[in-house]
Amino acid sequence: MTVSDPAATDTSYLDENEDWPTHGEYEYTPYYASREQVHVYEDTATRARLEETSFDYVVVGAGPIGAALAYRLAADTPSASVLVVEKNWNEPDRIVGELMQPSGCEALGELGLRSVFCGIGAVPVHGYYLAYKGKHTYIPYMDRPTTGGSRQRRYRGVSFHHGRLVMNLRAACKAQKNVFCVEGSVTELLGSIAANGSAQMETVHGVRIGPSRSTPETQARTTCVKPRALVFVCDGITSQFRRILRDAPVELLSHFCGFVLEHEPAESDAFFSAPGAGTIAACSAPTQTTANPLPMPHNGNVLLDGAGPVLLYQMSERETRVLADIPGPSLPSEAGGHLRSVLRSSLSAAAPKHAYPALHAQLMRQVDSARRIRCIGSKFISAPTNGVAGALWIGDALNVRHPLTGGGMTVGLWDVVHLARLLKRESPALGVSSSGDATDSSAQRDRAVRRIAAEWQWRRRGRALVVNVLSVALHALFAADTKELGLLREACFAYLSYGGICTMHPSGFLSGQLASPLLLVYHFFSVAVLAVRMRVSGASTAYVGDNLLFRVYSAFYTLYVAAGLILPLLWQELAP
Length: 576
What we know:
By secondary structure, this protein is an alpha/beta fold.
């Protein structure tokens, strides 16, 4: 049985999500809110421990990437000592980073954290519902390979409260005996400057740690820690140390404005009540104002008729996150109600009352009643080559993509997987081996660090390139602000509705499982060629009118626009 079989009756098994369980016990639950393992920098005993201990690794930041890395480092080499410095070990509150793609779930399994979604009310995700101009289509996640006579199953993702997942990851980190968790702030990377006279840092030797909240009285009370092996910079999207690698200004692509809808749980198989992959039909949705208002619960729902794309997904069975994109680097002011007016207009267009009565009512009510609308800027920062010895930047501290496709944690967690494997292989050369054959040679450690950095950059590149480029390119199409981009958006929607590889390969790109840059380029230009055909034939509704000669000209100009969109993104990702 496949997901595109609407006549199937037994669909309850699709909601079990047995490979990445969301129900059951989590072995590190006792450490979830525990502060016993967290040492506050202001305490005299903590500063004394930092001065006396020779740590092997220092991890800057305990977000999802830093916590996962610290856990894996400690578990792989029990004799290694790992220092984790985080400003605030309480539960964080963010409006993005709440959907884990199937490839990210696989990465967590590789790291030994497959049960991390248990106990936080997480919800399985089976694919994407797209709606555009009164029609919709469904993009399921890719099918699993089958063996023997086993039943066909799909890969699955998970959506959740961001803060709860981070706390579960931190719980695993805190449970390790060889991890020392400090609540403080890394104020400086200690290192040496290049000998060529530039101000570029050449080598990182350690970190300077201070209190989480610096005051004139505590500003001078800092401690320097120099690890034997490496410093890992995992301080996220707002990294204060990224400028060491890349100091170029970054322009915002758009803003996501977010809020939460509260509703009753959906039936377990309600997500299945929609067209199969590749079909287009008239929109339908629940009408009860207390019911789950999503067109397809347990899926990502993307509505394309607003000012920018509107993304909806469940954080739990009773809560749905709404992220409305406002294109452009500037955001309308909250003062005077301008932002809410823009959001009302965009959401009304994306979820019209006649097509989505319950969803429309809930969106309008929440926009009007919310105490404040939370917003976050979206940007693209390609990964520069790490030319600084002694430290590695990981996750969003290294590179950032548009959050539309939810691929940030997938890239970051696979960064951790690749890095952990290399560190385990090179642990004797780094001097942190538990087998007794560790080296004491600093020259050998430096060579090992260079090998790790070079091989890690190569291993991570394919998946990171696909996820990063796809996120920015899709946002440009879905938030189309020109006729040419509008034509490409229409062609993209039609292409995704064709089924077969036209649907499943893009699904693989979204999920992070199909890490082939060449295939990405092939499908992107296939969409562009379809746009040319639609324009020339007059089939497009996004770019209408004009005689045949001008249609041919504008069609090929659209092809030029498509090339001008994706090729610079590819170059930024591939350039050394």
